[in-house]
Design goal:
- It is built from three helices and eleven strands; from the N terminus they run αββααβββββββββ.
- It has about 190 residues and is mainly beta.
- The protein has a domain of about 120 residues: PCu(A)C copper chaperone (Immunoglobulin-like).
- The strands form two sheets. Strands 1, 2, 3, 5, 6, 8 and 9 form a seven-stranded antiparallel beta sheet that branches. It has a four-stranded antiparallel beta sheet with strand order 7-4-10-11, with no helix packed on it.
């Protein structure tokens, strides 16, 4: 009987996942809503984040230095402070295009970024555009290209959804629903 209870408990724990190994659920919104010409946006998600105003209202946190990536860095923790990031895969069945801008009402500023290695140090830098090759894809993921959401205006909690408008050089604009969730271990 104890073995049966232990086996059931282990199955339940395995189904729930581990706090140190978060999972990513692909964006399950209507795929037609995420198609713009030859481009399809799939698997979008944004990291959780706390609005800076919220931190200042919490006495215990107001005195704690806040790092934009406290709790796991680029590889997968909860975002703290006034920044977050959005990720997705942009598939292209036509001619080459480029993501040139993004916008959302939940951030004061939105930038396109990448992560580069400078010796043994990883650093984030803004880019003018993210190329989407002809008949290929651009993968925006932790540790690579991503959309940086700066000056967050409201808390972004797991389970929330935000509207993110993407602007492409040739295809134009599309607004996608982006769920807030923890990134998967890469």
């Amino acid at each position: 009987m104890k073995r049966l209870i232990l086996a059931v408990l282990l199955l339940v724990l395995a189904a729930c996942g581990s706090a140190t190994t978060p999972t990513t659920v692909l964006n399950s919104s209507n795929s037609a809503a995420n198609t713009l010409g030859s481009l399809t946006i799939d698997g979008s998600f944004a990291r959780p984040a706390f609005a800076a105003a919220t931190l200042m209202q919490t006495p215990t946190m107001a005195t704690t230095p806040v790092s934009p990536t406290m709790g796991g860095g680029m590889g997968g923790g909860t975002m703290m402070g006034s920044n977050s990031a959005a990720y997705m895969t942009i598939r292209n069945t036509g001619a080459a295009d480029s993501l040139i801008a993004a916008a959302t009402d939940v951030a004061g500023k939105v930038e396109l970024h990448t992560v580069t290695a400078d010796g043994e140090v990883m650093k984030m830098e803004q880019v003018e555009k993210i190329e989407v090759p002809a008949n290929g894809e651009a993968v925006l993921k932790p540790g690579g290209f991503h959309i940086m959401l700066l000056e967050i205006k409201q808390d972004l909690k797991v389970g929330d959804t935000l509207d993110l408008t993407l602007t492409f050089e040739k295809a134009g604009k599309i607004t996608v629903k982006v769920p807030v969730q923890m990134p998967s271990a890469q």
